[in-house]
Write a structure and sequence with these properties.
Blueprint (H helix, E strand, L loop, with lengths): L6 E5 L3 H11 L5 E5 L2 H10 L4 E5 L7 H12 L4 E6 L4 H9 L4 E4 L4 H32 E2 L2 E2 L3 H13 L6 E4 L6 H10 L8 E5 L5 H9 L16 H4 L4 E5 L6 H13 L1 E3 L6 E3 L3 E6 L3 H6 L5 H7 L2 E4 L10 H15 L6 E2 L1 H9 L5 H15 L4 E2 L29 H9 L5 H15 L4 H8 L3 H11 L2
Parallel strand pairs: 1-2, 1-3, 3-4, 4-5, 8-13, 8-14, 9-10, 10-13, 15-16
Antiparallel strand pairs: 6-7, 11-12
C-alpha cells in the first residue's frame, strides 16, 4: 500500500452500519468519510477525490447505488466502487458490476473480507491514477499521443490537436509527403470520445473511381461483374468511429459529389442499391495538394472543400523545424535497435551534425528510413559517418589504425580543408568556434556538447559565458 492513506467514502442510510464499516477500514489507516443519503453522497463526490467508494445499493428504499455509480464514473474514472447488497438485490449488484463496479459484498458483511477487497480496490485505483498521470507527463515531454517534437512549430500544432480532438469537427490535415499526416489523424482519433470505435484509413489517390466508390460506400451482390456478394464500405465499417481520407485532393469528381451527399445527410447508399444506411462517422482528410488552387481550377468542389476544412491543421516540413531532428532521430534509432536486436552506444557529433543540417526533402518518413538504414549497416555499436546512406552525401571514409579512437575514424573532405584554414588563428578563437559548432550539432544540448568536447559541464558553461556564445 502507498504511504498516503486511502481516501474512502462510505455511503449507507443505516448510520450504525456505516459507523461499523468506517471503524473496520480505519484499522487499515484509511481516511474515511461518511454519507447517509444519496444527496449527501453526491455533494461529497463533487467536492473531493476518493480512491474507493463503498455504497449500499438500496438507499432510502431505492436502488440509488446505481445512480451513484454512474455519477462517480462521470467525475473520476480512476475511483473504484464497491457495492453492498442484501440477498434480495444480488441481480442489481451484478448489473452494477457490468456498469463498472469493482466488486460487491453481501450483508451481513465479513469485515476481514471487506478490508481485503477494499485494499485491492485502492491498489487498482491508484495504479490507474498513476498510469494516467504518467501518460500526461509523457504527452507534455514528447508530444500528443505519439506525435514527437519540441520545436515551437510542433508545440503549436500539438496545442491545436488538443483543442480539436474532443470535438466532432471535420479536420483537413495539410502537409508535404512524408510529414506523417496519418499519424496526426490517428492522434486526433485516439484522443477523441470515439477512441474505442474503429479508425479506418483509405488512400483516395491509389484507387480508380469505381473501386474507390465500392471501398467507401460498399456494394450489393450483382452491382458489377465481380460483385459476388454484398460488401460493407469503409463508412459502414467505421460507424461510430473515424474515417481518414488520405490524398483526398485526388478524388474523382463523381466520387466527390457522392461524398458531399454523405456528409450532408449522414447516410450512405451502397453501389447497386437504392436503400440508404444511416451512419455516424467523423471525417478526417489529408492532402499534399493546394485544394484552394484545385477549387479555382475546377478540379475540386468548393462546397466539399468547405465541408472538409471546418478546422485546418498544417504540418510544417522537417526542414522548417530542425530542432525536432534530434528527438525524432533518437526515437527512431532506439526503435530500430530494438527491432534488429542491436546495441547502440551513441552517435558521433560528426554524424549528428550532418543529419541535423540535411534538408530532408522526404521529411519525417525519410529520416525514419535513414535511421533504419544506419542501424542495419552499423557494425561497431556507434553510429558514425560511415553508417550514413549515400543520399545524405559527401562522405569520405579514410583508413585508420586499430589505435585510432572510434569517434575520430571518419572525416569528410570539407572538414580536413577547414582545419588547414584555422592555422594562424588565435587559440581562443579556434576554441570558441569548436564550442559553437559542437553546440549547434547537438541542437544546444550542453550536457551532450560537454561530453563530446571532453570537458566538464561547469567548464563549458564558463566558456560559453566567456566567449559570449
Amino acid at each position: 500500500m502507498s504511504e498516503t492513506p486511502l481516501s474512502i467514502l462510505v455511503i449507507d442510510d443505516d448510520e450504525n452500519h456505516a459507523d461499523v464499516v468506517v471503524a473496520s477500514l480505519e484499522k487499515l489507516g484509511a481516511d474515511c468519510v461518511k454519507a447517509y443519503s444519496q444527496h449527501d453522497a453526491l455533494e461529497k463526490i463533487q467536492s473531493r477525490y476518493f480512491d474507493v467508494i463503498i455504497t449500499d445499493l438500496m438507499l432510502e428504499r431505492q436502488d440509488s447505488g446505481i445512480e451513484i455509480l454512474k455519477a462517480v464514473k462521470l467525475v473520476s474514472e480512476e475511483t473504484e466502487i464497491i457495492v453492498v447488497t442484501g440477498h434480495n438485490s444480488v441481480k442489481v449488484a451484478v448489473e452494477a458490476m457490468r456498469q463498472g463496479a469493482f466488486n460487491y459484498l453481501q450483508k451481513p458483511l465479513d469485515l476481514q473480507q471487506l478490508r481485503t477487497i477494499t485494499e485491492r480496490a485502492g491498489e487498482s485505483s491508484r495504479l490507474r491514477r498513476i498510469n494516467r498521470e504518467l501518460t500526461q507527463r509523457l504527452d507534455e515531454k514528447f508530444g500528443f499521443t505519439g506525435v514527437l517534437g519540441n520545436s515551437p512549430e510542433m508545440l503549436a500544432v500539438i496545442e491545436r490537436l488538443k483543442r480539436v480532438a474532443p470535438t466532432d469537427a471535420s479536420v483537413l490535415i495539410q502537409g508535404e509527403t512524408g510529414t506523417g499526416k496519418e499519424l496526426f489523424a490517428q492522434s486526433i482519433h485516439q484522443n477523441s470520445p470515439r477512441k474505442n470505435k474503429p479508425f479506418v484509413a483509405l488512400n483516395c489517390g491509389a484507387l480508380s473511381e469505381h473501386i474507390l466508390e465500392s471501398e467507401l460506400f460498399g456494394h450489393v451482390k450483382g452491382a458489377f461483374t465481380d460483385a459476388s456478394s454484398d460488401r460493407l464500405g469503409k463508412f459502414e465499417y467505421a460507424n461510430g468511429g473515424t474515417i481518414f481520407l488520405d490524398e483526398v485532393g485526388d478524388m474523382p469528381m463523381p466520387t466527390q459529389i457522392k461524398l458531399l451527399r454523405v456528409l450532408e445527410n449522414s447516410e450512405v447508399t451502397r453501389v447497386g442499391s437504392n436503400n440508404t444506411i444511416k451512419i455516424n462517422v467523423r471525417i478526417l482528410s489529408a492532402t499534399n495538394r493546394n485544394l484552394e488552387e484545385a477549387v479555382v481550377s475546377g478540379m475540386f468542389r468548393q462546397d466539399l472543400y468547405h465541408r472538409l476544412k471546418v478546422v485546418t491543421i498544417r504540418i510544417p516540413p522537417l526542414r522548417d523545424r530542425s530542432a525536432d531532428i534530434p528527438v525524432l532521430l533518437d526515437h527512431f534509432l532506439k526503435q530500430f535497435a530494438k527491432r534488429y536486436g542491436k546495441t547502440i552506444k551513441g552517435i558521433t557529433s560528426a554524424a549528428r551534425k550532418i543529419l541535423f543540417n540535411f534538408d530532408w526533402p522526404g521529411n519525417v518518413r525519410q529520416l525514419r528510413n535513414v535511421a533504419e538504414s544506419m542501424i542495419v549497416v552499423d557494425y561497431d555499436s556507434l553510429i558514425d559517418q560511415d553508417d550514413l546512406p549515400e543520399e545524405i552525401g559527401g562522405i569520405l571514409t579514410l583508413p585508420h589504425s586499430a589505435e585510432t579512437p572510434v569517434a575520430d575514424k571518419t572525416w569528410n573532405i570539407d572538414a580536413s580543408r577547414g582545419l588547414r584554414e584555422l592555422v594562424g588563428k588565435p587559440l581562443a578563437e579556434i576554441e570558441r568556434l569548436f564550442i559553437l559548432e559542437t553546440l549547434q550539432s547537438v541542437a544546444g544540448n550542453r550536457e551532450e556538447a560537454a561530453q563530446i568536447l571532453g570537458i566538464g559541464e561547469r567548464t563549458l558553461y564558463r566558456k560559453i559565458k566567456e566567449y559570449g556564445i
